[in-house]
Amino acid sequence: MPTVDVFNLNREVTGQIELSDAIFGVPVKPHLMHEVVVYQLAKRRAGTAKAKGRSEVRGGGKKPWRQKGTGRARAGTSRSPVWRGGGTIHGPQPRDYDMRIPKKVRRLALKMALSQKVIDEGFKVIDQFQLERIKTRDFAELLNRFELRKTLIVLPEHDEMIEKSARNIPNVKILRSEGLNVYDLLNYHAVLLSRECVGRIEEALA
User: Fold this and answer.
1) Percentage of residues of the chain with pLDDT beyond 90
2) Angle between the 30-44 and 103-119 helix axes, to the nearest 10 degrees?
3) Which residues, including other chains, have CB under 8 Å from residue 117's CB and lie 6 or more apart?
4) Total tally of structural domains belonging to the chain
């Protein structure tokens, strides 16, 4: 059963917490996490890119000039793809990028991503994650104290003080526990969360 230190806001160790083996001690399979990341990014794509073909561009109904006798190449429409203002050959068309991955596989990949963070020592647990005021400088000092740079902050619920204090800091993302996902876990170097949040994650993924 994995065990990690619990810190206070001054980075002093106040205890330890035992993590569930079924969630934070899962064997990591990179190919499975990659598949889920591709699935997540594909779902974000709108798929609305569109270019008009020669039959969709307005105009071009009249033949530009007669077929023979002008010395120029024959032309049937001014909306030909070889003409300026003409249609596009094999241009993008609206499509659906959605993929299908079983829910059990997505949950397993999330457990693997959490397990990888514990292995990499990028899983930081704070006893009481509370700020006295909304102040970006205070939150930046907290991150410096823990020597964190690209960090994912996971909250058990809405916390206006933390969310507003962190929103202008680059490479920091605030996420609530129900929105935890594989892509963000792998994209950020460290995860910072409270003891209460760990309990919520274990309860949700149990």
Assistant:
1) 85
2) 120
3) 123, 185, 190, 191
4) 2
Residues in contact with 118: Cβ distance below 8 Å, sequence separation at least 6, in sequence order: 2, 4, 19, 24, 25
Report H helices in the chain: 21-24, 30-44, 103-119, 136-145, 160-166, 182-187, 195-205
Residue 43, phi then psi, degrees to nearest 5 = -65, -25
Mean pLDDT over all residues of the chain?
Answer: 93
Model pTM? 0.84
Is the confidence at residue 28, as pLDDT, over 90? yes
Query: pLDDT per residue over 158-175, tens digit each?
Result: 889 999 999 999 999 999
Q: What is the DSSP letter of 55?
A: T
Q: What is the CATH number of the domain that holds 20?
A: 3.40.1370.10
Find the domain containing 64 and state its range: 46-96
Residues in the chain: 206
In this predicted model, what pLDDT tens digit does every residue of 90-145 receive, in sequence order?
999 999 998 999 999 999 999 999 999 999 999 999 998 888 889 999 999 999 99
Residues facing 99 on adjacent strands:
none
Rounded CA-CA distance 150/204 in Å is: 25
Task: Supply φ then ψ for residue 191, to 5 degrees.
Answer: -120, 125
